[in-house]
Write a sequence for this structure.
């Protein structure tokens, strides 16, 4: 197979938060583990990386992690050979000396821009199209997506089998939760909360606290903690904090490593996620979810939200569609969540079944790493 000999370079600029490194690190590992490729991952901010993968030595210019050669993308670029396949993640600008190295190769590399995830229809028309050219090197658009004709979603081999086994084992779940300091109260629904600042949080917490069903809410440390503090009337919330307010037990977790985060999602009955990578991982968890979408200028994120809802709710009854869509829209507008949450709860069994069905339907598509490799094989 020609793909086996190829060397791949992935370039990642951490714009903010964890999605840029979250996606590229996952992709790099999959290209190594599932396709036995030589992969270098160039990252400009190893501190963000360290949160997802604590083994990272933030001072090392070059290191090996899980079979991936992780290279610090230096401010002053040092000469490096161009690889056979070059991925610029999220339209990041490559160093000009590296672009020259690409152009100087006897056979120019395959150069791709790995774009942001969107469920909008136009993605299908643009996926795989040529983009700009640098000298003799052609760049291509590569779009992840949910529909046929897109690049698919990151899904490492064996993921769903591992997830199913874990979800079928109460002992494995208990052990995992205990390992991160969670003593899951019997009968309480378990919810994880990973989100940006959100004005609607207080109304959701009020509703959970006054609910007839007990809830154990797990909040990894991050941007939402300010809103949680305001609701609790405390300051300096940190990992380990645990508060009980009527039916709601609220616990702050440490930000866990990327693999552990999957296990957290798999344990929970409902996952509030955000951005891109956690959003996809929550779908692979096969459980109902709530998406806090990354806000963009001129509210263009709202089109993305609606595009996803249109796809996701296919096959759901009209009342369940209305309930889950209403919940997501309220959350993404920072609106009151009370009525929407209660409405959603009425359709719980249907939403649970649907989450698993959606996951299985998405898994019918080739995963993103395999689609990239196939794109390269077709190109050579
Ligand atoms: O962190 P995010 O909001 O990231 C992004 C960036 O803002 C990016 O610029 C933007 O373009 C994109 O969103 C849409 O959300 P995301 O994508 O979910 O990334 C979070 C990563 O952090 C993901 O890989 C899961 C991981 N994670 C852990 O490893 N441990 C944890 O405890 C948690 C809560 C998350």
């Amino acid at each position: 197979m020609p793909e086996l000999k190829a060397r791949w370079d992935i370039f990642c600029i951490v714009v903010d938060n964890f999605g840029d490194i979250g996606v590229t690190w996952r992709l790099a590992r999959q290209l190594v583990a599932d396709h036995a490729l030589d992969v270098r991952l160039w990252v400009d901010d190893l501190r963000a990386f360290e949160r997802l993968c604590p083994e990272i030595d933030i001072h090392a210019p070059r290191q090996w992690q899980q079979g991936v050669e992780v290279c610090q993308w230096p401010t002053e670029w040092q000469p490096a050979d161009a690889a056979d396949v070059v991925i610029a993640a999220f339209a990041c600008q490559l160093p000009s000396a590296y672009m020259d190295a690409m152009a100087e190769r006897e056979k120019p590399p395959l150069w791709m821009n790995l774009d942001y995830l969107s469920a909008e229809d136009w993605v299908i028309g643009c996926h795989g199209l040529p983009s700009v050219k640098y000298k003799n090197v052609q760049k291509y658009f590569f779009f992840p997506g949910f529909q046929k004709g897109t690049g698919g979603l990151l899904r490492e081999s064996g993921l769903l089998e591992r997830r199913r086994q874990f979800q079928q084992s109460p002992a494995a779940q208990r052990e995992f939760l205990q390992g991160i300091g969670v003593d899951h109260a019997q009968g309480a629904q378990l919810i994880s909360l990973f989100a940006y600042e959100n004005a609607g949080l207080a109304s959701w917490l009020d509703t959970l606290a006054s609910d007839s069903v007990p809830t154990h809410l797990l909040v990894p440390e991050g941007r939402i903690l300010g809103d949680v503090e305001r609701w609790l009337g405390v300051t300096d919330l940190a990992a380990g904090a645990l508060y009980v307010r009527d039916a709601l037990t609220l616990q702050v977790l440490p930000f866990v490593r990327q693999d552990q985060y999957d296990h957290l999602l798999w344990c929970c009955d409902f996952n509030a996620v955000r951005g891109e990578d956690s959003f996809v991982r929550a779908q692979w968890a096969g459980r109902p979810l709530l998406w806090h979408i990354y806000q963009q200028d001129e509210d263009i994120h709202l089109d993305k939200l609606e595009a996803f809802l249109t796809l996701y709710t296919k096959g759901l009854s009209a009342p369940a569609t209305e309930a889950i869509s209403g919940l997501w829209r309220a959350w993404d507008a920072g609106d009151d969540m009370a009525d929407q949450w209660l409405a959603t709860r009425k359709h719980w069994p249907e939403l649970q079944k649907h989450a698993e069905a959606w996951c299985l339907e998405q898994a019918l598509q080739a995963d993103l790493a395999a689609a990239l490799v196939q794109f390269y094989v077709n190109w050579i």
